[in-house]
């Protein structure tokens, strides 16, 4: 399992001929999940002693939602959104790429343009949703054109290594928006977002090798796990 992951990270391929049963895929996914949790806890524990800025996103959500709603939003809705944005299109398909284009547009509009939160229902929410839906529809029409679809498929196969690395880096580094956008936090960005980078490398592998549902479920379980620990620590 670990060898397959390392080999994939060193030389990512869009299509893997992984002859594994569903049972073995589940076992491998659980093993990778445990590795990810252990790594994340180690990094988080180390940061406790070195540098620990406030996670503004977690604080904002905790203030706006009840524990049950927070588990629903943080443990189900946001993981689904992020997996569509950063992992779904690792296997090229016009509808996948259109959905990714729409959710990525929503992400950038929310974080960089309107300086808002993904789950915040403020006065910009409908604008963000409307623009994202328009992008999905236009992108699907465009990407489904035969000549464009063929060109994208060739590009995906030829440049998949960079596409995979970009998905990992963007997933991790965009999480810097969870913190105050200060100079010191940007300096610490590679360390602050290291758990997300490690998570993205594993999620990208499981998405390509096993299917979209595997990294999605792991992402949901991970978020629910850490949110539950937060509730217990508050109690």
Automatic annotation (TrEMBL):
Signal peptide: none annotated. The chain crosses the membrane at residues 30-50, 65-81, 93-113, 125-143, 163-188, 216-234. Keywords: Membrane, Transmembrane, Transmembrane helix. This is CAAX protease self-immunity. It comes from the Bacteria.
